[in-house]
């Protein structure tokens, strides 16, 4: 085929022809400034300090040291990839291959059989069933099927085929088995109980055992129940119960030296709310002062005076440092042309070899000091035990979600006017007592709702935590149901699990149909053992290794723009508001960048939302 015809066909979807003129119409995409992308790329390596950093003006050096103390402990990148655009590109590439007659690679979940094997297989009857299962989402790209990624449904479908529950003729296409999930879960999110409905061959009495033998230990089938032919696990589900595990140190206030910590005080004074702000932070008012005295001062006691003074300025350990830091925050975003700092001459030569050695020794000492302080703060957070008064504030915030409200701010690609943005929360309760695992105190939060939109639960948890830790009036949560679009980040996915879906309406009718009710309680002992081993232990272990929660709230505290200042006494007007087009498909770039900055790897799962953005957790 001539090259010009190939190019014409490949560009056809993007060509606009008017008279004799042909123009190329590029689909609207999400672009980020080169400066922003470079800043993200710079964060891909763990923090260090260079000799050049040591020669910087004091204000800039303070910022370098501050980032070393508070940045992501794992040193991982906080870059964001536009997954929706990538998804669209993948689908477009697949469509072009089909049109051009090229070979399309089979989905990763498909099992290929020869035509001879398919024709020789004995045909057996299928029945509509509900498959009760649980899984640990660690290492999986979510629940829902993906043609290219490892997912829970993908492994489950392959196991059905391997166990003989799906015929060889249907081994490449789940649609032929009418597979429907009750609730989707994002990348890394777990489920103690979930359900898929589909048509299976269930003649074998030991079919559950056969399926489990083909699955990894992270995925277990609890039961397979024969249902009526019209059963849909998605449509007939009354409600869902999710659990979120969060370390209690997430409810500590931002450190006074952070951008958010400073803005909380600034807006409280500006709005005449200082008395109310202090009352809402009463039980943690002295936490950082006591922590710095107990954990940081001993480190600085054996540190050279110049480095000690530098760190004290970074952490506001002396009152006289505060006003200087105020000035720095106000000027840190000025263009380079406005800087008045005299730059060293490029003609200057190194003084002497011994000066280089001294400079290297100072660099190493600064690096070691920062590393020690970072470890000390992590140790202090692990040792934190939340007081009863703070727990009461957490429950007060969670109570604001109960009822029917407009949650468009708690998901993606929806507007305030969209009727589907309204959701009903039956209850949102925390456990009466926290639990201590490996020295860290954790709190269990359980939310029961009719249905949830993509990322809704993680954003609800993040907002509640922000309200409590920032000494914000809990009424601010109610204000988020209004028409103003604000940037609410989603808390780390590792703490979320689907406890179970509820089928009360269906179960009430089973005595009439002669079918078994959907009941996870029959398998409670097995499920609890699995949940402890494969879910809880993984959550605790992953947090101990990655410090995901510390990193998330650390980046939130240091994001030095207005997007998250709605938790200050200035309220929603203090934040940088965004306008959303009627179709709800685009967001203001600065808001996307803000969310990417604080969410980091947690934002990876924002692909094209299935089911209209439903059931994301």
Automatic annotation (TrEMBL):
Biological role stated in the UniProt entry: Formation of pseudouridine at positions 27 and 28 in the anticodon stem and loop of transfer RNAs; at positions 34 and 36 of intron-containing precursor tRNA(Ile) and at position 35 in the intron-containing tRNA(Tyr). Catalyzes pseudouridylation at position 44 in U2 snRNA. Also catalyzes pseudouridylation of mRNAs.
Pfam family for this entry, one: PseudoU_synth_1
Skewed-composition ranges (Basic and acidic residues): 79-101, 585-595
Family that this chain belongs to: Belongs to the tRNA pseudouridine synthase TruA family.
GO BP terms, alphabetized: mRNA processing; mRNA pseudouridine synthesis; snRNA pseudouridine synthesis; tRNA pseudouridine synthesis
UniProt: substrate binding residues: 242
Record protein name field: tRNA pseudouridine synthase 1
Reaction(s) this enzyme catalyzes, per UniProt: a uridine in mRNA = a pseudouridine in mRNA; a uridine in tRNA = a pseudouridine in tRNA; uridine in snRNA = pseudouridine in snRNA
Keywords: Isomerase, mRNA processing, Nucleus, tRNA processing
Cross-referenced NCBIfam families: hisT_truA (TIGR00071)
GO cellular component: nucleus
Residues of the active site: 186
Region listing for Disordered, in residue ranges: 75-101, 321-361, 581-617
GO molecular function: pseudouridine synthase activity; RNA binding
Gene3D superfamilies attached to this UniProt entry: Pseudouridine synthase I, catalytic domain, C-terminal subdomain, Pseudouridine synthase I, catalytic domain, N-terminal subdomain
Species this protein is from: Aspergillus luchuensis (strain CBS 106.47)
InterPro entries xrefs: PsdUridine_synth_cat_dom_sf, PsdUridine_synth_TruA, PsdUridine_synth_TruA_a/b_dom, PsdUridine_synth_TruA_C, PUS1/PUS2-like, TruA/RsuA/RluB/E/F_N
Compartment(s) of residence: Nucleus
Biased composition (Low complexity): 608-617
Location of the Pseudouridine synthase I TruA alpha/beta domain: 397-504
């Amino acid at each position: 085929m001539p090259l010009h015809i190939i190019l014409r066909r490949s560009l056809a979807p993007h060509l606009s022809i008017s008279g004799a003129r042909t123009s190329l119409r590029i689909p609207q995409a999400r672009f980020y400034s080169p400066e922003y992308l470079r800043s993200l790329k710079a964060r891909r390596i763990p923090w260090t300090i260079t000799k050049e950093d040591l020669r910087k003006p004091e204000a800039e050096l303070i910022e370098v040291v501050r980032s070393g103390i508070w940045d992501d402990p794992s040193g991982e990148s906080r870059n964001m990839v536009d997954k929706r655009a990538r998804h669209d590109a993948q689908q477009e590439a697949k469509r072009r291959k089909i049109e051009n007659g090229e070979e399309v690679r089979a989905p990763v979940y498909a099992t290929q059989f020869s035509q001879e094997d398919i024709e020789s297989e004995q045909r057996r009857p299928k029945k509509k069933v509900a498959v009760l299962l649980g899984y640990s989402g660690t290492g999986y790209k979510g629940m829902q099927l993906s043609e290219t990624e490892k997912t829970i449904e993908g492994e489950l479908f392959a196991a059905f085929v391997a166990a003989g529950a799906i015929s060889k003729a249907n081994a490449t296409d789940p649609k032929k088995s009418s597979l429907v999930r009750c609730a989707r879960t994002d990348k890394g999110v777990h489920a103690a109980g979930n359900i898929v409905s589909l048509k299976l061959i269930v003649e074998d009495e030991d079919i559950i055992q056969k399926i489990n033998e083909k699955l990894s230990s992270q995925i277990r089938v609890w039961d397979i129940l024969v249902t009526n032919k019209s059963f849909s696990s998605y449509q007939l589900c009354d409600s869902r119960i999710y659990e979120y595990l969060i370390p209690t140190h997430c409810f500590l206030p931002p450190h006074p030296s952070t951008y958010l910590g400073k803005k909380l005080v600034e807006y409280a004074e500006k709005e005449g709310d200082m008395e109310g702000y202090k009352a809402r932070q009463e039980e943690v008012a002295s936490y950082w002062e006591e922590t710095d005295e107990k954990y940081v001062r001993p480190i600085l006691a054996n540190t050279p005076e110049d480095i000690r003074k530098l760190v004290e300025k970074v952490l506001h350990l002396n009152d006289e440092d505060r006003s200087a830091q105020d000035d720095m925050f106000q000027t840190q975003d000025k263009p380079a042309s406005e800087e008045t700092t005299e730059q060293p001459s490029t003609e200057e030569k190194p003084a002497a070899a011994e000066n280089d050695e001294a400079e290297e020794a100072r660099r190493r000492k600064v690096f070691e000091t920062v590393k020690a302080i970072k470890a000390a703060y992590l140790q202090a957070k692990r040792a934190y035990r939340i007081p009863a008064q703070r727990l009461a504030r957490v429950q007060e915030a969670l109570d604001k979600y109960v009822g029917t409200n407009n949650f468009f701010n708690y998901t993606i690609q929806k507007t305030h006017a969209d009727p589907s943005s309204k959701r009903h929360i039956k209850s949102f309760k925390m456990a009466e007592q926290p639990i201590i695992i490996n020295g860290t105190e954790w709190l269990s939060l359980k939310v029961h709702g009719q249905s949830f939109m993509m990322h809704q639960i993680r954003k609800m948890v993040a907002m509640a935590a922000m309200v409590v830790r920032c000494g914000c009036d809990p009424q601010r949560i109610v204000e988020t149901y209004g028409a103003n679009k604000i940037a609410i980040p989603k808390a780390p996915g590792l703490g979320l699990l689907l406890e179970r879906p509820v089928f009360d309406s269906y179960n009430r009718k089973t005595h009439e149909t002669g079918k078994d009710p959907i009941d996870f309680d029959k398998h409670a002992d097995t499920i609890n053992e699995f949940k402890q081993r494969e879910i809880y232990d993984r959550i605790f272990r992953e947090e101990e290794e990655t410090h995901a929660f510390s990193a998330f709230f650390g980046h939130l505290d240091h994001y030095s723009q207005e997007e998250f200042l709605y938790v200050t006494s200035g309220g929603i007007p203090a934040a940088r508001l965004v306008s959303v087009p009627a179709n709800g498909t685009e967001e203001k770039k600065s808001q996307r960048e803000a969310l990417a900055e604080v969410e980091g790897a947690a934002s990876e799962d924002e692909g094209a939302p299935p089911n209209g953005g439903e059931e994301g957790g």
